[in-house]
Amino acid sequence: MQESVIGGPPGAPLAGPVLGLESSCDETAAAILAPDGRVLAETLLSQVVEHARFGGVVPEIAARSHLVHLPALCARVLEQAGLRPGQLGGVAATSGPGLIGGLVVGASFGKGIALAQGLPFVAVNHLEAHALTPRLPGLLEQAPAFPYLLLLLSGGHCQCVAVEGLGRYRRLGTTLDDAVGEAFDKAAKLLGLPWPGGPHLERLAAAGDPGRIPLPRPMLGRPGCDFSFSGLKTAVAQAAGRLPEGGSGRADLAAAFQAAVAAVLADRARNALRMAGSPTALVVSGGVAANGAVRAALAGVAAAAGLPLVAPPVRLCTDNAVMVAWAGIERLRAGLRDPVDHAPRPRWPLDEMAAPAG
Ligand code: KG4
Ligand code: ZN
User: Fold this and answer.
1) Ligand 1: which atom is nearest the Cα of residue 181?
2) Structural domains of the chain sorted by starting position, each given as residue range(s) with its CATH number in brackets
3) N or C: the chain end with fewer CB closer than 10 Å?
4) What is the pLDDT of residues 227-269, one digit of tens each?
5) 90-96 and 282-285 strand pairing
6) What is the distance in A from the centroid of ligand 2 to the CA of 318?
7) Which pTM does this prediction carry?
8) Ligand 1 first shell, C-beta below 6 A
């Protein structure tokens, strides 16, 4: 049988900077990090404009756009870092979960470079990349020690994960229907705001009174840390239909929605912290972590538990390739790598990640 793992024997020391590629949704991104985690170059191209008129991500458009732009983005980061491909120490590409077309583009491109240069390849789980971001050296004064609790709050994911070590993740709770970012986007659409609606809704909410329109707070007070947002969305739809013309009605509804989401997230995070064992920090990531009301609510939960709230800067909270390269470095340093016939996985639960032996 032909050996499909390339780049020297598993466990060989990392020989140079790592190229990371991200293409699982609607951001095409490339980054190069030194073996110690220093960011040597990064670039990102958002496809928001291409998808906006459809009100959401169109998978075929996303895949084509990744295919068109990824080669130039890779060339750009290599140039910025002053490196030739042969000087890299490894290639890491997001290989799931996500939209299969984009995953195939990014993973195949990454494998092509790895094969051509004889470099080790890492198939990165996108969720693991989010989970390991706070460990990126230089990002925080002190990186949180394992175990920590990760609240991943994005357009595609809504999960509470106990991050116990590299490759050791315990999903404590997830959404039963929509992801929280999706809920923001749907509520924003009902309020007549453009996609993606989260930031627009936050701006509108700033002018509203969160106490004027009563909305449900699904799952609040229930055991565990699962989420549900579809009932809240229905309530927003009904309330939006009853709003009087003019006045502050839309802003009040936006504020009420945001307050309901923040309260639910705080309640779920409180339970998740108890379920996580003895976490050293509450880490919040994903696009929704940019929301001020959400951050404030979670800061209260963390403070009450005597823990720091860690929120990476927004550019590293939302999808990016720095986190992918860093996850690759963590895995390569631990002696982990993947065969070039590793198939991208549109569904890839975090708890199926391999931990280093021993
Ligand atoms: O992590 P992300 O950039 O991409 C993925 O979903 O993978 O998250 C995007 C989501 C969108 O649903 C967007 O509306 C939401 O994060 N979002 C926000 C805010 N900024 C982005 N939601 C609420 N408030 C914000 N300020
Ligand atoms: Zn993401």
Assistant:
1) 12
2) 2-133+317-352 (3.30.420.40), 146-311 (3.30.420.40)
3) N
4) 999 999 999 999 999 998 889 999 999 999 999 999 999 999 9
5) unpaired
6) 6
7) 0.93
8) 25, 154-156, 181, 184-185, 196-199, 202, 286-288, 290-291, 318-319
